[in-house]
Amino acid sequence: QDGGSAEFERLIDTASTPVFGVNTAGNINVWNGKIASIIGFTEGEALEKSLVKAFLVKKCHASVKDVLNDAIQGRETTVLELVFHTKSNVTRSFFMNAFKRRDVEGNVIGAVFATQGLVAFPTPQQVAAKSPEWLQKHCR
Description:
alpha+beta
C-alpha cells in the first residue's frame, strides 16, 4: 500500500462527518466510523454491498444511480440527497458531495461521498409519502 492510500484511509477513518465510497460497480469500499454510528451498519456489514440496493430508499434509486454514474465518469456532483434505511429501520437523509476517486495512474476507480449535513426523517413512511416531484428534486 502506498503512502497516499494510507493517508487517504486515515483521513476517512478520522473524519468527524459521514464519508463512504463505492467502486465503479456501485459497491461500498469505504465506510467510516461516523456513518457506521449513524446508520447502524458496521464497516464489515457494509463493505462490498450495493449502495443503492442495500441502503437507500427505493424511490431515490434511479436518480442516485445517475449521480453515481456521473461521479464515476469524472463529473462531480454537489448537493445531492441520499436517504438511507438504518439498521433500526429509521431513515436518515444526508446532503452530500460526490467526488471521483482515482488510482495512482489517474484512472477513475469509484466515487467518494462526503456529507454536508444530516436531516432525520422519523419513519420510512414519511419518506415514502413524499411526492415524486419532491423526490426527484431532493434525491438528486
